[in-house]
Amino acid sequence: MSALSAWILSILGIVVIGAVIDLVLPSGRMNKYVKSVFAAVTVLVIILPLPNMLKNGCDSENFIFNEQIQLQEDYLGYAEKVKRDSIVRGLRSALASDGITIGEVEIVGKFSAAVPIVEEVRINLSQVVISGQTEHINKCEVVRSKVSEYLSIDKESIQIYER
Amino acid sequence: MKKFIAVFAVFALYLCMAAFTYKEPIFNADNSDAEQDLADNVEEIVDELNLAELEAYLAQLNDEQLALLGGANLKEKIKAAISGNLSNQYGSFLSYIMSSIGMNILSCLPLIVSVILIAVAYNLISSLRGNFASDSVQNIVYFACVSLLLIILFTKIMGAVSTVRKTVESLREQMSIMFPILLTLMTAIGAGSSVAVYRPGVAILASGIAEIITAFILPAFLISIVLTAIGNLTDGVKLNKLSGFFSGSAKWLLGSAFFLFSAVMAVQGITASVYDGVSVRAAKFAISKYVPVIGGYLSDGLNLVISGSVLVKNSVGLTGIVLLFVSVLPIVLQLVTLSLGLRFAGAVIEPFGDGRMSSLVTDLSKNLILLVAIVLAIAFLYFVFLLLIVCTGNLAL
Question: What is the pTM of this model?
């Protein structure tokens, strides 16, 4: 910007000097020659700083991508939590219809996409209650197969622990 | 002219697409529970969203602008807009425009009167001189009068340039506040493709286009008006063609950047938004139909996030559009009034003097149109972006 101001000021200066010389010089043949020389000087003053001004151009890296758009991660976390909670609610309800009440459940997956992808489910077996069951059953296997069926995931992705 | 036709063709194409994808809302007879759920959901979303920066920006506005926006409390405004209580601000808008025009005309009047008085004074001095003074004296008088005229005009024009620079910076700040909120809401909706398209677009608009304006177009404008003034100052040096070159270069640069950016973003944005809308709809359908029991719950959860986020996004986008108009309109009116005022002054002083003074004032007023074009171009790009974002994701509902 300073180079630009200097350039404009130099043009203004040379033109003002030219105007003053024009006023002072007597009319005649000499006036014509002085005017021609002066026009050449003006052209030089306009053209000479241009190569330097063009050389000091801008850096394209900083020019285009110096603005970063940061998304609000807290809100995205909230949206993912709503989706995760709805899956947990659905799972609890589905298992309840089979007489299974579960306690602590943790669901791991990708919830940012339009369709959430469940990758892993962790269930605390000590809080699982299966009602209306008189025979001896493998509680762990029953829960695993039901959760696998409802969430459409592999049985290996379901971790059941006791604490 | 061709560029403008092309831009409007793209815009019309976009509007046609929006019209085709618009879905008529279905009103049920008894939906009070659903409405209450939605209102609670929206309230939760608005509370979760970080709107502090936007509220701080709104707090800087003056009372008149805040009245047009419907107050400084953004969260209340969003909730009111979502519940359908959109206040009718057309009357306030019209009175705001009219008062802006009146204020600008009043502020331009001293300038117009000064220009006319200087021209009349020069004419009087030239007439009274008769045969007593030489042509050199006449030239000195002209030189003095034009110098005085230039000092007055340049004070006003530099003020206008500084206003344009501030407006570009202000729009840049608005974009850097508004777009992260809107893009976050779009990501939550599941419009990933659109966000991928808009994110670099927003970065280019907020930094690149604004930088082109402040680094190239405004300096080119300054060079152009200085050369116009110098060219008209004396008969010895003719610089009008050089001035025309700078002015033309600035116009071409602005026009090309404007056209390329708006065309590319509009086409990509429309394609991505349609793709996102269809994929989210398909996902919702697949979940509710093919995932047993849990599908219904998951679909409800998705609806909760999507419908709430879409409503909040549209409401924030609407606030952004009103904010854009409120900040740009007075500047455009000020520049147009100044340009027309100078043109009027140039027309009035034409019968006085030798016409050089009149052509100087008229040329400067013509150059001022570039400043109007700069403000309108960046405002239009921002407006198109906001409009695209507001319309994106609605198809998912």
Answer: 0.79
